[in-house]
Amino acid sequence: MMKKFVKKLLKLLKKDYKMNYQHKDLADGRWAELSFCEQMANIGSEVERALKWKEKGNLEYGEKAFFRALELFDLTIKFNTNQSRI
Asked: Where are the chain's structural domains?
């Protein structure tokens, strides 16, 4: 099942993929108001959710949490102009 998930992820990454943000309020600038540590903590929470759902056998919810974590990584890169921290 993991191979199927990875193949799907790689297929998405190869496309010119426009992010459709689930965290719209964060994408609108609120993410930039959080400290870098707060941003990393939020990303970590989504990663942990993804792992927990995978352990429980719910790959659909695990995948959704994983993509939310990627979204937050994307916002971190977008809003943090001090690239030396990343």
From this structure: 20-85
Q: What is the pLDDT of residue 77?
A: 85
* b/e map 27-61, b = 16+ CB within 10 Å: beeebeebeeeebbebbeebbebbeebbeeeebee
Question: Averaged over 28-53, what is the pLDDT?
Answer: 91
